[in-house]
Design a protein that fits this description.
Elements: E1 6-8, E2 11-13, E3 41-46, E4 61-66
Antiparallel strand pairs: 1-2, 3-4
Protein name: Cupin type-1 domain-containing protein
Pfam family, one: Cupin_1
Organism: Brassica carinata
């Protein structure tokens, strides 16, 4: 079997025939983050580094956990877009 290697967006791009379910899965978003800090919140970020199958899609996922009176301090995402629910 001939193997070719290419990089897209600085990340290794796997031959689609060799893609596995694990390339599209991350198990950490179901776990609560540690909110024992000054802002009483925790942010878990998931992007192409954790889910290689997201490469070229421009998708990132975030879980934010808040303790009572917790906050997510102001921050900028420019030029990115954000959807919270």
């Amino acid at each position: 079997m001939k193997s070719t290697c290419s990089f897209v967006n600085g990340k290794f791009c796997k031959d689609p025939k060799q893609a596995k379910a694990e390339d599209f899965f991350f198990s950490g978003l179901n776990k609560a983050g540690n909110t024992d800090n000054d802002v009483k919140s925790s942010v878990t970020t998931v992007n192409v580094d954790q889910i290689p199958g997201l490469n070229t899609m421009g998708i990132s996922l975030v879980r934010i956990d808040y303790a009572p009176h917790g906050q997510n301090p102001p921050h900028a995402l420019q030029p990115l877009r954000s959807l919270s629910f």
